[in-house]
Amino acid sequence: MLEVVDHHRIGSIETDHPIPFVNRPWGSTSTIVSSIARQYRVKLEPGLAGLLAAAVISDTLAFRSPTSTTQDREEAAYLADIAGVDLGELSSFVLAAKTQAHHEQPGEILRSDFKEFTVGKFRMGIGQATTSGRYSAELKAQLLCQMNELMADAGYSLVALLLTDVVETGSEVLWAARDATLAERAFGHYGAQVGTESFWLPGVVSRKQQFAPEVIRAIRESERS
Q1: The domain 4-98: what is its CATH number?
Q2: pLDDT in tens, the chain (225 residues)
Q3: How many alpha carbons fall within 13 Å on the CB side of residue 90?
């Protein structure tokens, strides 16, 4: 490992020697990359600038996510200007591309944006897919089947999938857990009717800032009790 540039929470990491480490509480790693390029006066090619701008839009859901910051907006505008594209039009294009998951296979939907978390001895995986409408009951049943298989095969205590609706601004959560009470302890205070396999969380669009911290809190509270 030569260097770390990231915007996620810092977990367990070990290196053989000191390395450059840049971690910012911004909505996208691409925002950090752009700011570093500006700091060192690195000239970005229009194509690369456009890709970075699209990545910022994707990560922040076109700046609708609570993870979005002023830095994200500023860098995205800067990058769009270099690329010669309209930021609003690019945002519409990126969100439309992100909501095509209905045409994918269940395994692709589950694993396309899947992250593993470890809290003590508790291992879990949380995936996220962006949509502009609710998934069919048949597709959700297939996804839950895949999730339960993954939980057993990988030895997870929890596998969750956020189906984030950019129109309704919330997420339907598909949930497969060994502890039947974990969902209620993590999200009961949202006022939602938390089920054992599926429930809706209004206003929750960020795995990093809104969803994972609540699950981790519930796990740690259970460990202390």
Answers
A1: 3.90.1640.10
A2: 899 999 988 877 888 899 999 999 999 999 999 999 999 999 999 999 999 999 999 999 999 998 999 999 999 999 999 999 999 999 999 988 877 655 578 888 999 899 999 999 999 999 999 887 778 889 999 999 999 999 999 999 999 999 999 888 899 999 999 998 999 999 988 766 787 799 999 999 999 889 999 999 999 998 876
A3: 21
Q: CA nearest 55: which of 75, 39, 25, 41?
A: 75
HEC string of 3-35 equals CEEECCCCCCCCCCCCCCEEECCCCCHHHHHHH
Domain boundary assignment for the chain: 4-98, 101-224
Whether the predicted model's global pTM rises above the 0.90 cut: no
How far apart CA 210 and CA 208 sit, in angstroms, is: 6
Q: In this structure, are residues 182 and 218 in contact, taking their beta carbons and an 8 Å threshold?
A: yes
Q: Decide yes or no: CATH 3.40.50.1820 for domain 101-224.
A: no
Phi and psi at residue 178, to the nearest 5°: -75, -30
